[in-house]
Each structure stands twice: as C-alpha cells, then as structure tokens.
User: What shape does this take?
Amino acid sequence: MANVIVVGAQFGDEGKAKVTDLLSRNADIVVRYQGGANAGHTVVVDGDTFKFHLIPSGILYKGKTCVLGPGMVIDPKAFVKELKGLTDRGLDDSGLKVSNTAHVTMPYHLAIDAADEESRGDHKIGTTKRGIGPTYADKCSRSGIRIEDLLDAKVLRGKLEWLVPKKNIILERLYNLPPFDVDAVYEEYLDYGKQMAKYVCDTSAIIFNAVQERKNILFEGAQGTLLDLDHGSYPYVTSSNPSAGGACTGAGIGPTIIDRVIGVSKAFMTRVGEGPFPTEQEGKIGEDLRQVGKAWAEVGVTTGRPRRCGWFDTVIGRYAVRINGLDCLAITKLDVLDEFDEIQVCVGYRNKQNGSIIKNISSLAGEFRDAEPIYETFKGWKESTSQCRSFKDLPKQAQRYLDFIAGELEVPVAIVSVGPMRDQTIIIEDPIHGPKRVLTHVNN
Ligand code: IMP
Assistant: This one.
C-alpha cells in the first residue's frame, strides 16, 4: 500500500495529468483535493486527447474510485457538461464520488470574478474567470452553498433568498451588471442537484475506509506550489492550497497516512496570468519554448491563453521541495528542449538593489521584485529524446541536465516525460517504492 500526493512544483501546468495518469494505474482511489474548474488537465491515450477540469483523470481507468474532495469548489454546470462529455466517449462513471461538503460555484461567483478582474486595472490577477476566488471567499465568510445544499430544496431556497439579493447589490451597484433572479437560480441549481445526487457522499469516510483496507490512494493536486494561497506568489495566486499540506485538509485525512510526495516540474517553466516570473523569456527563446513540440502547444487548457515561458528556476524548485516535503521529482516535457543550442538554468538570484545573492527565497513578493536570475548555461543535446525509454537512452547532455537539477534541488528525478503519449515516459527509479528522501541539512 502507498498513499501518494502529486503536486505541481512550479506555477501550474507542469504536466501533472500525465504523471497522475501514470500512477493512477496502480491506485485504487484518485482524489482531487482543491481548486475547481480553473484546472485544465490533458491526458493523451492511444492518440485520443482527454481534457479534465473537475473530474480526476483516474476515470480513464475502469474500476477506480474517483473523488472530488471537500476542499474543492465545484461548478455544477461545468461538472455535468464535463461528465457528459466523458460518458459519451464511453468512460465509466460508476466509481465517481463527489463530496457532500465541497462548495458550489454559483453563477454570481462567475459574474463577480469576471467583474472584479475588470475593475482591478493594474492590480489584475489574470484569473481563469471560473469563479474560484469568490466561491472560496464565500466559504471563508460562511456564506457558501455546499453540494449537500443542492440536494435539499428547502435549504437551497432559504440560502438563495438570503444570498442572491446580497450578491445583486454588489453586481448592480458596484459593477453595473444585471441581477440574478432567485427563482431561476433555484430551479436551475436544484436540477443540477438531482443530476449529481447519485455521486454525492461523505468522501472522507470512503478514503478512511480505503486506508484501513490498505488500498492505494493518489491525491492529485491542481495548479502549483507557486499558486498556493498561503505559500505562492501572493496576490498572484489561486484561492486554495495546491501544495501538499492542502491534500490533508482538502481530502479530510490525517497527515500520518501519506507515504510519498511527488513534485512535478517542467524541464523549463511556464506561467499563465499575471505575477512575477524571474526567468521569463519574452523574446525568441520564449516564443520557441511556446511553439516547439506541436503536441505540447503552450496555451492554457482552461482559458486558451498563451503561456508565458522561461528557463528552469532552481530557486523556485528548492522552495517547492521545502513547502511540499518532496520525496522525488517528475520532470516533464524534456523533449521541448531538444532543439535548443543552449539551455539555461537559474541557480540563484542577484538582488538588483544591493547585489546580494540568494539561493533560497523566504518572502516571495519582495525577493521576486528585485530578483535578477543568475544562470548556468548548458550546451543543448540537439537530438530527439522522444523515443528514449530509459535514462541511458538519453543524450549525455540531457542526462547531465537532469542530474544538475536533481543535485541543485537535492531530490532525485524519478520520472522523465519525453512526449504526451503514455509510453513516452522514462522511469529512473520507482517514484513510490524507491528510497525515501533523507533530509541531510536545512537550507538557509
Ligand atoms: P483563479 O484560480 O482562476 O482564481 O486564477 C488565479 C491565478 O491562478 C491566475 O494567475 C491563473 O492563471 C492561475 N491558475 C489557475 N488555475 C490554473 C491552472 O490550472 N494552471 C495554471 N494556472 C492556473
């Protein structure tokens, strides 16, 4: 038995879906623990592309239990649409479970998210406009609607009669937008409740029982460490905790059941939306990183926005190791670097104000603002890695590149992905049963 958390170790879009898909094969239960329809996970199976926003990609395997956990925010309209798209393609939904206590993204959350972004001007976050921030804000202010409320007509009606007029004041007076009608929202969301009812249950109890039966559980993070509400590049973050700690609160489990934490990083780096990105390449290199590898086109799965691209940043990597307690790394999209003459890796930042050099960050906002990356330059390998299936198949320069990253982060690289297909994967060491990482010293 092993219970494993897979987290994004960068700014999201690290290729977690492919790693989760790989590990799901041996999992009994796959759990999403935070976020909502802002996520966009792509898995390619036998040339068929599947895109997931809310539903764990574990549904691709028959017989797995796939959980949408209590820490998630679920837009029922998006859920019903996504599920229909998957079942129409023949996928089995019999193992799908939705937490009764997950919060519901309501239509006013979507409207407020979009209007708030518009009104922010220079303070824009670049959200996915999927209502994530406003849904979590209502959860925290104890004004949220939970999935279980959609199943109880009286409770839903009561909450809507109280909440919708309040939201309408915000929409009409602050943003000059049309109000929502209580009756229409009630009818529509009660109907979603009916469609979702068969999946709704106490998912934490399902996970707890599975632990006792010594089953394998995979906790699938969405977004990434640097988008974490508490530990990311605030305020340019999402409103949940994608980092490993979030798996416990977001799934309703205790930390003692976790055996492993696997961090997923691209071999370079991308970011969608606003916020600091010290190694961002705005010129030809950035464009090449975005364009290379047609199958990997670097646009957001949810929003279609072009991703900002740059070089691998070991400062951010070390930070992700610390925040998540990573045991090992999965490096994705190595093949995107195949044609580059030179590849750079950021090994530290020089402070533009005082010239001091930082290898580890403590306060993301301030240190990012003044950070000038210090690069180590690697000669490119200039040959395709997409057919490589073992570490020794990789060109020597690519091996050196991976070893360098592992050395800088002091974490082994267990998995390397060299293309979008399932078989375009190199397992260097067993990510689940390989040697457990031993903390040799504390970074400072
Ligand atoms: P929100 O989660 O829609 O509120 O967006 C907040 C920030 O997180 C924005 O910069 C988004 O671009 C970013 N973000 C949210 N979800 C994802 C994702 O799945 N991948 C990458 N970035 C994301």
Remarks:
- The pocket of inosinic acid is lined by residues 12-13, 38-40, 125-128, 130, 132-133, 222-223, 227, 236, 238-239, 272-273 (CB under 6 Å).
- The first strand starts at residue 3 and ends at 8.
